[in-house]
Specification:
about 280 residues, TIM Barrel, 11 strands, about 25% helix
């Protein structure tokens, strides 16, 4: 008789190249319909990570080959100590700010330029825009989201930053069509958008259960070279931040380097050819 029991596979982290910091899990100025985070229905949550926790994590991982620290969230720039944390992380390595761009104006872009000149490490921006069509983008995010992100990109470009566009493929369109649409859009900004500056990721529908589990075939998964720091401990990937199924330990002095691909989030990653959250810096070399 055929064995119908499905057993989740295990992935071991090869090296800690990417450190994600969940600045907040619940504080965001947007509530996008496609977001994988479960936000409070009526109350605005405030669960900002303490600077001391980040400082300890940086100290504990000083022997690890961390190439980039990602400030993520919900919306990381809502953190009241964001500027100080950015400077702290830049002392260690490159920093990527994963943001919807709504809090970036020309004054803030000027601040980022000043901070970048204080260090040899680089500030990278991942700005979320989910469609090159304004109406389609705003229908899944919020009214005005497209223009706010567009304004942020223009402000950053003025100070010689080249943001990466992070697209969640909510409408399940061909990647080539999405890329061509954004390339035409950015031509109006005199910005030559190359394929390395746009990351198109599949949408994880948290209301749907994966019926046919994908097999692990040595795909490029974030959990193979990344870990997430939150105010509650260490987790295997941003999808599973503060989820007991992705918990790896209390701190970086003693944490698990193995991850079991048991969740529907893992199935979304397995079906993607590229990492969903981290940047493949080899493409920029």
């Amino acid at each position: 008789m055929k064995n119908l029991i499905w057993q989740a596979e295990t992935v071991e982290m090869k090296s800690l190249n990417n450190l994600f910091i969940t600045m907040t899990s619940k504080s965001c100025n947007n509530h996008c319909k496609h977001c994988y985070i479960d936000f409070p229905m009526y109350k605005r949550g405030e669960d900002f990570i303490k600077t001391e926790i980040i400082q300890k994590a940086i100290e504990d991982t000083k022997q690890e080959p961390v190439q980039c620290i990602y400030l993520t969230g919900a919306e990381p720039m809502t953190h009241p100590d964001f500027n100080a944390i950015l400077r702290l992380c830049l002392k260690r390595c490159n920093v990527c700010i994963c943001t919807n761009g709504s809090l970036i104006n020309e004054k803030k872009a000027r601040f980022f330029k000043k901070v970048s000149e204080e260090t040899s490490n680089e500030i990278i921006f991942k700005i979320s825009i989910d469609h090159y069509d304004e109406m389609k983008n705003d229908s899944i995010r919020y009214r005005g989201a497209f223009r706010q992100a567009w304004f942020a990109i223009k402000a950053l470009q003025k100070y010689n930053f080249s943001p990466i566009i992070a697209v969640t493929n909510y409408y399940n369109e061909p990647k080539e069509d999405i890329y061509n649409g954004f390339k035409e859009l950015f031509n109006n900004l005199n910005y030559d958008l190359d394929s390395n500056h746009i990351i198109i990721s599949p949408w994880h529908d948290k209301n749907k259960t994966s019926e046919t589990p994908a097999e692990y075939r040595d795909q490029k998964l974030d959990c193979k070279n990344s870990r997430v720091l939150s105010d509650k401990g260490i987790y295997s990937c941003p999808f599973l931040s503060n989820d007991y199924r992705g918990r790896c330990g209390n701190d970086f002095n003693d944490y698990m380097k193995k991850t079991t691909l048991e969740t529907d989030f893992c199935q979304t990653c397995l079906k993607s050819k590229d990492p969903i959250f981290s940047i493949d810096f080899s493409k920029f070399e």
